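Appendix B, record 7
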Amino acid sequence: MERNPAIVFCHDDMEFARGEPERRRFFFDQTASLVSIGYIDLLRAYRRALKARNVALKERSLDVLDVLDIQVATYGLGLRDERARLAVEFDERFAPRYELVSRLGSRVGVAYRPSWKLDDSVDTVVSRLGQGRERELALGTSLSGPHRDRFIFTDERGDFSDRASTGQLRLLSLTLRIAQAEHYAVVSGRPPVLLLDDVLLELDPEKRRRFMENLPEADQTFFTFLPGEPYRDYTQSDTIVYWTDDGRFSRT
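Structure tokens (predicted):
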């Protein structure tokens, strides 16, 4: 029996919009992993090789570094290629969705900035790792590779996240989840379950309306609202509403 995953929209998703590069890598790794066991295997293999290489650098185990350089380059370039493909596909879903709700008037998209160039080969990366080995030995860590990749949100002026308002960043984080849900549905052929945990407060009423009207297809959708929020504005004929009080649920 196939199970559909839950795409969770929560307050902490703001970290993907304005947080550290590691958080954005986590999001896109999660997106790829939802539909590809091969990606999960590749990511794990790279992390194992990277961990072993960092240990070898710290312990100055020069006899194993040549082998580990090849492993890191091979798995890392596989990750780079998968992330590059994902970024192109994701951008095509993300950008129109963001504009549809924001009405910003300029395209906000997703761009991938890999640590290694898109045309680098295994031999090129291994050579570069060798050239930088003395510095990495001194620091005891690997200074390049997919663990240093960046995903950025851009508009016609450059990095959009650096200039965006709190509301724009919130909408960006919500649109990331929408595009993630669409990506899963298109690749797998099955709609996910959507869970939205009190994430609309920072949007003005008009953007809330447009957001709700343009949610992607889902197997089921669950929302949580705080008391006083106009949740009835978003209900449909088949919507079921529950109240919770002191840990107890009651149906209206």
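Remarks on this record: The domain at 6-251 is CATH 1.20.1050.90 (Glutathione S-transferase Yfyf (Class Pi); Chain A, domain 2). Helices lie at 14-18, 21-33, 37-59, 62-102, 122-131, 133-139, 166-188, 205-213.
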